[in-house]
Amino acid sequence: MKKIKALSLIAAMTMIAGAAGCANNNGGSVSENGNASETTTEAVDVPEIEGYDLLWNDEFSGSEMDESKWNYEPHEPGWTNQELQEYTTSTDNVFVRDGKLVIKAIKTDKNGRDYYTSGKVTGQNKTDFTYGKVVVSAKVPEGQGLWPAIWMMPKEEGHYGQWPKCGEIDIMEVLGNDVSTAYGTLHFGEPHGEVQGTWGLTGQTYADSFHEYSVEWEPGEIRWYIDGNLYNTANDWFTAESGGDEKPYPAPFDQPFFVQMNLAVGGSWPGNPDETTDFDKAEFEIDYVRVYQKPEYDTNVKKPEKVFREPLEDGNFIFNGDFSEAEDLTDDVNWKFLLFNGGEGSAEIRDNMIVIESQAEGTEDYSVQLVQPDLPMIKGKKYRATFDAYSDEERDIVVCVSAPSAGWIRYLKDTKLTVTPEKQTFIYDFEMKEKDDNNGRLEFNLGHRGSTATVYISNVRVEEIK
Questions:
Q1: In angstroms, how far apart are the furthest CA atoms of the chain?
Q2: Are residues 194 and 256 in the same domain?
Q3: Where are the beta strands (DSSP E) in 297-342?
C-alpha cells in the first residue's frame, strides 16, 4: 500500500562480495548485505512503498539535469543496433522542462543527407545499486523509427564478460510505430538468452499520457509491472564463457547495475524514420525516477529446475492441436494470436481448425502470427512437426520452432511454404542440437508475404521421433 509521506533523499551505492565498489557522490552507502545507510540532502514528497526504503530518486524539479545523478553518454551514429542517431551532450537533446526530463530527437541535414541527434543519460558510477525496485513515470513519442527505452546495465560490464554475458534489464521499450505495446526484457548468457514480456493497451497508447514502469529486482527473481500490473517474471537465467561452466546463480544479476534512458532513432528493430515521422514531437518525457530497496535480501538462492511439460497421451506436444476447443487466443495458454509492426488481422477457432484473416500484412514475417509456447526441446532428440493448411488464394507463410528464451535461435529453421486453396499436409523433421529448453515455440508467420489471403490450419502436431 502506498501513501504520501515526506522522505529524505537517500543517495547510495550497493556492493556485493567480489564486485568492485565505487565512490558515492551523494554521500550515502549501502553495505555488502544490501542494507542502506542514509544521508539526508533534502526533503522530497515521494510515495512510500511498504517493505522498502527510498534509496535515491530524481523528480526533475530543478532547471537542468542533475549531473550528480546522471551522465551524458555521447556516441557516434551506428554505435549499436544500426541506429542512426548521434547521442550528444547538447541541452537541445537533453533538458528539463516543467518538472520533467526531456530527451529529444532532432532531424537535421549534414553533407546533404538526413542527420539525427538525440540523448542518452546514465547513472553509472553515481547511482549504482544491487537489488531494488525501480519506478519510472514516462511518456513516449509516437513515430516510425523512434525507440525510447528505460533500461539497466552493470556498472562493471566486464565483470562476467561483455554483453550479453554481463546481463541487461530492460524496464521499458516501446516502438514508435506501435505505441500501444510495451516490452520488458531480460538479456543474459552465452548463447544469448532472454525473457521478454509485453503489456498492451486498448483504447489508449503509451504516447497519450504518462505511465508508470517498474521492475522489482531480487536475488532469485525479477518482475516487471506497468501501472501496477504484473506482466513478466524471470527466475531462470545464466551466464558463462563460451564452452565454460556456468557462473554460480544468480550471476550475472548479482552485481551493481545502473539506470539509463535514451531515445534511439532507427535501427534493426524499429526500422528507420519515414515521411510520417514528426520530429517536432519526437520527445521522450520522464516525470520521475525512484529507486527503492528492501532493508535486506536473502542471497542464498538456487536456480529453479526446469519443468518440461509432458506430451498428450497420443504423444503430441501441441495442446488443442485439433482445435476442438474454442479457446481464448489472447492469453498465454496454448494457442496465442499476435499482431506487430503494422500487421492487422484476426483469428477464430471453428470447425476443428483455426481461421486467420489478415487486413494488413505488416512489415515483418511475424506481423501476423500464431504461436504455441512451452514446447519441451531436449538436446539430442529428434522431432517432427506436421499440420494441414490451405488458403483462399495461393500465398506463402513461414513456419518455425523458435527459442524465445534463448535469443530467438531456431530449432526448426524458418521454412517458407506455399499454401493453396487445396488442403495440403506439411511434414518437417528436425534435430534439437542446442541446450535443453522448456520454452520452445511453434510459430506460424503470415506477415510481410505479399498477401492477406485467409489461411486455414488444422491437425497440428509436434512429436518426438526416433
A1: 74
A2: yes
A3: 336-339
Answer whether 0.90 is exceeded by the pTM. Answer: no
**Other Cβ atoms within 10 Å of 151 Cβ, number:** 21
Determine which helix (DSSP H) or strand (DSSP E) holds 178, and give its type and residue range. strand 178-188
Number of C-beta neighbours around residue 80 at 10 A: 10
* Known active-site residue 173: yes
DSSP string for residues in 390-428: EESS-EEEEEEEE-TTTTT-EEEEEEEEEE-SS-EEEEE
pLDDT tens sequence across 46-78: 999 999 999 999 999 999 999 999 999 999 999
- CATH number for 180: 2.60.120.200
Among the listed residues 59, 83, 142, 173, the single catalytic one is 173
Catalytic residue among 59, 86, 142, 168: 168
Q: Is 86 marked active-site?
A: no
Q: How far is CA 390 from CA 358, 397, 460, in A?
A: 14, 11, 13
Domain hosting residue 416, numbered range: 336-465
In the numeric block, which cell numbers belong to residue 265?
Answer: 532513432
C-alpha 396: how far from its chain's center? 29
Looking at the structure, do residues 166 and 284 belong to the same domain, yes or no? yes
Each as own residue / partner, the long-range contacts of residues 78-81 (CB below 8 Å, 24 or more positions apart, any chain) are: 81/264, 81/267, 81/268, 81/269
Q: Find where cell 531436449 sits.
A: 378
Digit-coded pLDDT (tens) for 131-178: 999 999 999 999 999 999 999 999 999 999 999 999 999 999 999 999
| Residues 176 and 251: beta-carbon distance below 8 Å | no
Angle at 55 between CA 61 and CA 297, to 5 degrees: 160
